[in-house]
Design brief:
Layout: H1 10-25, H2 48-53, E1 62-65, E2 68-71, E3 89-93, E4 98-101, H3 107-120, E5 125-129, H4 135-138, E6 150-154, H5 157-176, H6 178-181, E7 191-193, E8 196-200, E9 205-210, E10 220-224, E11 229-237, H7 248-258, E12 265-270, H8 281-300, H9 308-311, H10 322-337
Bound molecules: zinc ion (ZN).
Length: 340
């Protein structure tokens, strides 16, 4: 079952070395760029050399369980250097197939992830699963088109992508610049999940579940049943402040339900590669509860929505990128709570 996940045997290492050498020779990789330590603040997918040479590097990943790999994205906004790879992504290698979970924020980010997979296995990449609509999780999809891969997502995802694609692409291009953005386009899912769906990678079932409005209207989780590894997408944040594009109260209620489930480990959409469950839910829940309390207080005092961004700030200092996301979260929540 786990035979395809890369071996520590001497022949495996030799094969990997040969692959890296071949990739360098083909100009696919920058020399020395194959394995780098991961740091949540500065974990750009590009080194200076790669940037200068315009090369695609295999994305650094951590094996969080047998055959389950995660790229821990930096806590940053999209830049030319990070290629928009600012949301976590991963892949699961089964006997017959590989499933990719989220693809980063540009074609190049997706290509790096694909290179990381190909360093470890030649098994077909049969599925690309998007956990939700946000650009840092879907804009790398096109890197997997040539594999004949099936794209899988929440039933509401195609419509959400269609409605937002012009804005997402324009914004990504503006933040990353032409060169890093080159070739990036929207690839919507063709296989849709309305409730649950099981995909089998070869004695390796993945349970996909589509959830109601919470972080977004398109949230989907992926459970690797064999290892109990649960990819939660942006239903879970750690370190990086939660971003709200749904409804805070509904998100809190959903986390409550999800905490009843057992998982050996969970993978957040932003944060470390893996965390333990259900404890990992606590900071996100605390953030959302305080956001709701702060905004309710403002509304009760008769303050205007324009003050929400600056005032609903009990969690300031607890999270990275607080000032970049909290004002929007507060305004969204003000809208929802205004008439309650
Ligand atoms: Zn998101």
């Amino acid at each position: 079952m786990e035979g395809a996940t890369g071996s520590t045997s001497r022949s495996g290492i030799r094969r990997l070395a040969l692959l890296i050498w071949a990739a360098i020779a083909c100009g696919l990789l920058a020399p020395g760029g194959s394995v780098r330590a991961e740091d949540p603040r500065t974990n750009d997918v590009r080194t200076d050399d790669a940037h200068a040479q315009n090369a695609i590097l295999p994305t650094p990943v951590t094996e969080v369980a047998a055959g389950v790999f995660v790229h821990m994205a930096p806590y940053q906004l999209a830049t030319p250097r990070n290629l928009g790879f600012i949301g976590n992504a991963g892949f699961i290698i089964g006997r017959d197939a590989v499933a990719v979970i989220d693809t980063g924020g540009s074609l190049r980010a997706g290509a790096g992830l694909r290179a990381a997979i190909r360093l470890r296995t030649s098994v077909p990449i049969r599925y690309v699963i998007n956990t939700h609509v946000h650009p840092d999780h879907v804009l790398g999809n096109a890197a997997f088109l040539e594999d004949g891969t099936e794209f899988v997502g929440h039933a509401a995802l195609p419509e959400a992508l269609a409605a937002r694609q012009v804005v997402y692409l324009a914004k990504a291009r503006e933040l990353m610049g032409e060169e890093a953005f080159a070739g990036t386009r929207i690839v919507p899912p063709t296989r849709l999940v309305t409730d649950t769906l099981t995909l089998d990678l070869g004695d390796r079932p993945l349970l996909l579940e589509a959830w109601p409005l919470a972080h977004s209207g398109t949230d989907l989780t992926v459970m690797d049943v064999n290892t109990g590894t649960w990819f939660l997408g942006d239903l879970l944040f750690a370190g990086h402040v939660p971003a709200l594009d749904g409804n805070a109260l509904k998100w809190i209620a959903l986390l409550d339900r999800m905490k009843q489930r057992e998982a050996t480990r969970v993978v957040p959409g932003h944060g470390p590669a893996a965390l333990s469950w259900p404890e990992a839910a606590l900071p996100t829940e605390r953030y959302l509860r305080r956001l709701v309390a702060d905004v309710r207080h403002l509304i009760q005092q008769g303050r205007p929505m324009t003050e929400a961004g600056g005032s609903a700030a009990s969690e300031a200092g607890e999270w990275s990128l607080f000032d970049e996301f909290n004002p929007r979260n507060a305004v969204t929540t003000f809208h929802d709570l205004e008439w309650e």
